[in-house]
Amino acid sequence: MGSEGQELEGNVLVAQSGGPTVVINSSLAGVIQEALNHPCIEEIYGAMYGLRGILGGNFIDLAQESQHVIRGLRHTPGAALGSCRCRFQESDMDGLFHVLESKNVRYFFYIGGNGSQCAVRAIEAHAKKIGYGLRAIGVPKTIDNDLAVTDHSPGYGSVVKYVATTAREIAIDDQSMGDFDLVSIVEVMGRDAGWIAAGSVLARHMGTPFDAPHLIYIPERSFSDSEFLASVQKVLENNRYCLVVVSEGIRNAAGDYVRTSGIKDPLGRTELGGAAEHLQYLVEQHLKIKARTTKLGISQRSAAHCASLRDNEEAFQCGVKAVRYAVEGESGKMISIVREGDSPYAVTYALTDLDEVAGKVKTFPEAWIDESGSMISSNFFRYVAPLIQGEVAVPCKGGIPEYVHFAGTKKVEENLFQKKR
Amino acid sequence: MGSEGQELEGNVLVAQSGGPTVVINSSLAGVIQEALNHPCIEEIYGAMYGLRGILGGNFIDLAQESQHVIRGLRHTPGAALGSCRCRFQESDMDGLFHVLESKNVRYFFYIGGNGSQCAVRAIEAHAKKIGYGLRAIGVPKTIDNDLAVTDHSPGYGSVVKYVATTAREIAIDDQSMGDFDLVSIVEVMGRDAGWIAAGSVLARHMGTPFDAPHLIYIPERSFSDSEFLASVQKVLENNRYCLVVVSEGIRNAAGDYVRTSGIKDPLGRTELGGAAEHLQYLVEQHLKIKARTTKLGISQRSAAHCASLRDNEEAFQCGVKAVRYAVEGESGKMISIVREGDSPYAVTYALTDLDEVAGKVKTFPEAWIDESGSMISSNFFRYVAPLIQGEVAVPCKGGIPEYVHFAGTKKVEENLFQKKR
Hints:
Two copies of one chain form a homodimer.
Chain A lengths: L9 E7 L7 H12 L5 E7 L3 H6 L2 E3 L5 H7 L19 H10 L2 E8 L1 H17 L4 E6 L15 H21 L5 E7 L6 H5 L15 E3 L7 H14 L2 E7 L27 H13 L2 E6 L3 H4 L6 H19 L5 E10 L2 E9 L25 H6 L11 E2 L2 E2 L7 H9 L4
């Protein structure tokens, strides 16, 4: 039975997938709040731990959750439903549709990155094939900003705001120390794309002492030890410190991650340090200058206390629009953000064919990399600056942000894992 | 000429020393604002880069700075006057008093940790010896919380608030992932004392899924690889993830830093990684469980966007009280915070003889370490919880915190360094 354009009665299933962002729960809140507005939607189920909970029928009833929790999702990091990295296989299909049918799921929303969008495409195609009335919409999510078509991905603006804020703060500390020249290295996420490291350029406040970071290295350009050392020396001709922001995934001309510098542990395994430690080693060894490292690690994708309000609101709207489009009869698409203007900044939310997204990667444009290869061009500012605007007010209790969790998850988790959490 | 109890007319010199905290400038603002209230004080000089600027007479005129900048100091990280780690030598004394006399400095305030308090003591003693009328007061500052006598040190509450906030956020991310067991390791500062790592215990919210960190390792207890692995396994019997917070300075039973695990680079130097990498290596090698690391590095002492309001206000008051006590005739003392009660929390500000502070270290009390050696006792809560209360409203511009810098520093810096900054 085809369903396009007709009213389809049934239940919603929503799930989260991939690495969390600080706004992935805001998209979830958007789905839940909008779903409550439509009489054709009866139950609102959340599948726990992505594909794992979808296949196992490990659902919680989201309509049973309190308003306090649903509101709190708007500022809570992590994936409130749980997430997973496992990929959908064609062999999962029969089991999956058995679960959907048994729960009368007619609306499916999957909040995630590329892998999740591939899954939505496959599930929608199978529903058509077997004539099961289902409307499946992908909701974009990734801190990496590497999803195609959409102007940017929910989650990216917040990580940039946190990384740029932290880079400015570290720069101020660096600049305070008057004893010796100093190289300060901050390693951020980004295995294949440099969007996050590039965003740290917003920390620069030219014409003030806060003009760092001075050097930014991203995976889109191959990294050379000797060019790096020459660039550091050049910065230190005029500055007492040099702040370097580096993507974890930078590679040398041979295509190897720069941390694989040949240093081995006693068991012959490659050294434990990452990109930042390699750069620190180069500076201390070859320039005899003190270097120190900060590796933001998981904090950068979970720092909800420093989220972008704009990112948060857009993530919520992506969830809302997904439900609206589905109720109107759309399926097999991903919500994408369309930028209508920079100044004033304005966006609309469109539907993108999943063939244009699934399996594609949006790398950082060459045109926005400075000629030197170690700095980002100012043309990038107009793109990225609007994404970090506004601060999310996070309620605190006892001096620590007060984050929420679903009341219904405990029992399902015990079934899933035979462990508390 | 003795000066105690008499009104002493002359100028103020204030300086900052040691590693910055996010509230060291709040103490500076307290000194400046209070100094403006006393007619016996004429000029208010700031020495740049601590001892270096004191000896070189590299001063800026703080009364010339705008109200916008003085107010902005209350939320700006780093050391706005610049700092240094160099230690005061007796051979510096004649030159120093030559500078003080030439600028008619009669009030000297040094904001810093142990080394700075030693310097204040030596300078005060020399002033007495040569009959130079000077009132010298130390203002406490350290994220490490290892200054003696004072209940706690300005700077400590804010780093705990940031570390506990970040630990809770990372825990929520850890708990989101449902694919496999996970060990997440967060390395924080603390070479000799575990106060910062211990403070992360405030992230725990027992009875909810947010009961991490599960293990905390501090330098006060020697670290054993095998006990660590056993503790991780025990945590993972009931949890799918194990969050470990570790001081950078943990040592094994032989007294060696645990990062010196014998792993050498090709030049024979000890491995590049720190404590967190060593723990990651142990988990992945021996338990075959995925482990990931975050090293907060300099961000933890510069994250003014996540400062404790109480810490900020106390730091300001320490600056204010230093000036008041000096005007009343006191000298050769350090301001200390005296806790008058926990509930309601209340403090007063007293003077401490520098002999009781200089050269002393306050380590984390044995009584607050859990029997297991890998967790902090709940008795510590009553001490630490009040220190992180309240949030500082930091104005943002363009989505990034708006921090200030003195207008007068540029020229002095060029003289000092022959470099811009």
